[in-house]
Amino acid sequence: RDLVRSRGLGDVYKRQLNVGGSNVILPSGPFLRVTATIPEAVIFGSSLSGTFSFEQSVGQLTQEAQDRGVVPPKFIKIGVTNLNIFLGDRADAGEDDDDAGLAITNGTGAFVIKSGSFVTDENNVTTQLPGSFSGQASGTVALFIPGADVGFSGNFSLRVNTGEEEVQEVVQVGGQTINLNIEAGPYLQVAATGLELNLLGQTLSGNFVFEQATENGQQILRIAASDVFIGIGDGTQNLISINQGRAAIRIDQNGIAGAISGNFTESIPGITISANMSLLFNTGTIAVMETIEI
User: Which of 163, 165, 164, 169 is nearest to 181 (CA)?
Assistant: First the structure.
């Protein structure tokens, strides 16, 4: 109904349409976006629900590149909100005690698949660099095993970038907007906050970050942990515990190096020991100088 035109680096057009009584604003293109809301679907016995968006867009080129006839890069945006997945056997509705499987709730994610940028060398030859896959996802994960004293829950997040350039994009999913700000890669990072693990009466909780990255051509793994609690006991009380634990560890081809600290308590009947514990280690032959954010 209304045509809006603004001036900037280029002309931007927006058209507002009335679809089924709702106003829809179409931003400037070219692009193709498909959005689907799935109330509930059962796939091989597993349940899935959420809102999904898939969009194909065309990247921008400088005027000089356009004059040379360079083909603009294409990229695909994938977004999801309100994601709920249950993998396993969902027994009675509303009763978690009988469930057996893995549940992901309140999931949100946004990913971008980009074709590589075009570069021109000193001989005026234009080539295309490799593409990249980047994005982020988060949600609450819980494991249910009926009749067994085993399970875990926590808030998990993932960040990934297979390219060497940072990614800043906006992904539309239904009526929601997800802003992507992904650091230059390549790397893969998985974080767990508020993690609680119960295993046959033993407990582990804390915040953990695992990051795989490429540094000087080699793969490295960084592990960071904070607010860690470990309780080992007889099922009724903790006989040995470590609280306020912190750790920073690096694993590469040279070996494993890191620092671990925490408060150690032993409460065996008749014996009580409390101490502040710290451990520094390096199995390699090269000194490690690195800051790992916990």
Answer: 169
Amino acid, res. 274: S
Span 242-290, pLDDT tens digits: 889 999 999 988 899 999 899 988 877 777 788 888 888 899 888 888 8
DSSP 97: G
106 touches 139 (CB < 8 A): yes
What is the rounded end-to-end Cα distance, in angstroms, of the chain? 52
Amino acid identity at 162: T
Closest CA to 126 of 163, 184, 73: 73
Coil, strand or helix at 285: coil
Average pLDDT over residues 2-12: 36
Question: Taking the mean position of all CA atoms in its chain, how far away is CA 196?
Answer: 19
Predicted confidence at residue 12, as pLDDT, reads 45
Three-class SS of residue 96? helix
Mean pLDDT of the 228-247 span: 84
- The residues, ordered by sequence, that sit 6+ positions from 136 with a Cβ below 8 Å of its Cβ are 109, 110, 111, 157, 158, 159, 160, 180, 182
Which CA distances in Å does 105 have to 85, 90, 133, 148, 278?
7, 14, 24, 22, 37
The candidate with the shortest Cα–Cα distance to 84, out of 39, 43, 132, 33, is 39
Structure tokens at 42: 């059962």
The per-residue pLDDT for 93 is 55
Q: Across the chain, how many H-helices and E-strands are there?
A: 1, 19
Other Cβ atoms within 10 Å of 81 Cβ, number: 20
Closest CA to 113 of 57, 31, 185: 57
Stated length of the chain? 294
Helices of type H across 56-180: 63-67
